[in-house]
């Protein structure tokens, strides 16, 4: 009995000691990324190619989470506000030891939590615990003081045998196995060898639906006199056809309400309304009644658009003539109302600060506004990314300091876009690809580098295929091949 009590007491002390160690230490940004690796594998949007709604939710939540983590690493910043996030987390496969392969691609669950922590360690623990992911690996991260190291020595550790032990017994050295696994990287040719056959089968199966999709898109665009029909996410071909059939039925039932949509771009997405870019958004989960309301309200949206353009012009005047733009591919999807509120809040902040910019001194430069970031940055295409909460003095200093670099980036943008298009066309022609495209998160510089290296290879597997440049290897449900832009040869 006393023996049992001693064991229980020892376990309790170890648990308390471990909690003290974890709670008393801090994490660096690199430590936080390493600690969140299981979380990223569980929620990364590239693993939700067949589930566009869940993919879109995870993409938006990751952007907001990255902004929160970035803010935590900014010295002296205290204006924290609770951030509520929702992720779709892939379920774990039983009896799997590999971090990446331990997650199933078929099952997932929705997890919502609110972040209100003020340090990286607490935030990382909250995220992992909320998603029911292990936090044991955080123990192995290096601690920041000698007292922490001494406390950690009190914990029991696995026995680390000498290399001769494994040679003598014939047992496998776990450290050596891990090193070998890390050295063996997936190459482009080996992955294509393993996946080309299944991709061809899926592609052939999707061809009739692809033709049907093109027919429906042309018919509706002509009938409604639309500028374009788009999809916000990479939904499957069957899903897209279903959405166009649904819109076609609405045209037949209520043709009078669709006269206002003439000249617009229709975007199928996760919610209905008008986007910040001025496109008509049709929520794929909404019924015809909701779509009809949007079409009826279009004249009211036009009035809001005029007010929005006035705000952009006023902000431009206060900031030396810099142009305020909205880049659909780079920014979170916002409704017209949400974007107007963002502009209005930023404009009032500028009015109060009265920054001394010389009129038209920044003419020719561009900027975008984001509410989920905390530090300004300069994009490779030359536009500034400005947080709505950015301190006015910091904003002024950053824009002035980076103005010349921004102008140089803007000049290179046209050259880079021309180079990117030429390389895409050349690559598609060389490999007889039916289509070559990239994910929005892949930059032009990354796409150019990828295509240049592709042109040096001989890849007969790609003939007639659809190739998407992304960040991970995968085969989409309709046969599209996805490869990372930084693939290994």
TrEMBL record:
Note one Pfam family from the annotation: DUF4461
Q: What are the residue boundaries of the DUF4461 domain, all occurrences included?
A: 186-488
* Membrane spanning residue stretches: none
Q: Which part of the chain is the DUF4460 domain?
A: 23-133
Instruction: Give the record's GO CC terms.
Output: mitochondrion
Q: What is this protein called?
A: T cell activation inhibitor, mitochondrial
């Amino acid at each position: 009995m006393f023996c049992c009590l001693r064991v229980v007491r020892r376990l309790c002390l170890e648990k308390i000691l471990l909690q003290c160690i974890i709670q008393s230490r801090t994490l660096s940004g690199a430590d936080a990324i390493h600690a969140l690796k299981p979380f990223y594998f569980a929620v990364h949007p590239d693993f939700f190619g067949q589930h566009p709604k869940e993919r879109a939710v995870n993409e938006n939540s990751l952007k907001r989470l990255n902004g929160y983590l970035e803010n935590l690493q900014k010295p002296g910043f205290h204006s924290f506000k609770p951030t509520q996030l929702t992720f779709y987390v892939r379920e774990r496969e039983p009896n799997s030891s590999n971090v990446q392969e331990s997650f199933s691609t078929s099952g997932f669950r929705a997890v919502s939590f609110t972040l209100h922590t003020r340090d990286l360690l607490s935030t990382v623990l909250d995220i992992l615990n909320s998603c029911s992911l292990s936090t044991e690996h955080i123990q192995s991260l290096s601690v920041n003081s000698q007292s922490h190291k001494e406390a950690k020595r009190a914990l029991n550790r696995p026995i680390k045998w000498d290399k001769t032990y494994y040679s003598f017994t014939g047992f496998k050295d776990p450290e050596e196995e891990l090193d070998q696994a890390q050295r063996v990287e997936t190459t482009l040719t080996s992955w294509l060898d393993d996946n080309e056959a299944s991709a061809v089968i899926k592609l052939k199966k999707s061809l009739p639906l692809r033709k049907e999709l093109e027919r429906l898109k042309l018919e509706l665009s002509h009938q409604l006199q639309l500028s374009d029909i788009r999809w916000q996410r990479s939904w499957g071909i069957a899903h897209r056809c279903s959405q166009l059939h649904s819109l076609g039925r609405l045209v037949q039932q209520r043709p009078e309400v669709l006269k206002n949509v003439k000249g617009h771009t229709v975007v199928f997405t996760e919610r209905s309304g008008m986007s910040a870019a001025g496109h008509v958004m049709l929520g794929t989960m909404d019924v015809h009644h909701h779509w009809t309301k949007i079409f009826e309200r279009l004249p009211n949206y036009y009035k809001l658009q005029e007010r929005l353009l006035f705000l952009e012009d006023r902000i431009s005047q206060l900031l030396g003539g810099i142009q305020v733009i909205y880049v659909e591919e780079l920014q979170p999807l916002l409704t017209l109302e949400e974007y107007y509120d963002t502009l209005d809040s930023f404009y009032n902040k500028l009015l109060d600060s009265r920054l001394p910019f010389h009129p038209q001194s920044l003419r020719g430069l561009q900027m975008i506004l984001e509410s989920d970031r905390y530090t300004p940055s300069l994009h490779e295409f030359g536009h500034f990314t400005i947080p709505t909460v950015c301190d006015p003095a910091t904003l002024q200093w950053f824009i002035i300091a980076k103005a010349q670099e921004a102008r140089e980036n803007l000049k290179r943008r046209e050259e880079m876009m021309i180079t990117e298009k030429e390389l895409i066309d050349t690559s598609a022609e060389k490999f007889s690809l039916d289509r070559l495209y990239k994910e929005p998160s892949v930059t032009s510089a990354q796409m150019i580098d990828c295509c240049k290296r592709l042109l040096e290879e001989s890849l007969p597997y790609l003939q007639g295929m659809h190739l998407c440049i992304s960040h991970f290897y995968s085969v989409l449900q309709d046969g599209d091949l996805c490869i990372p832009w930084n693939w290994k040869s």
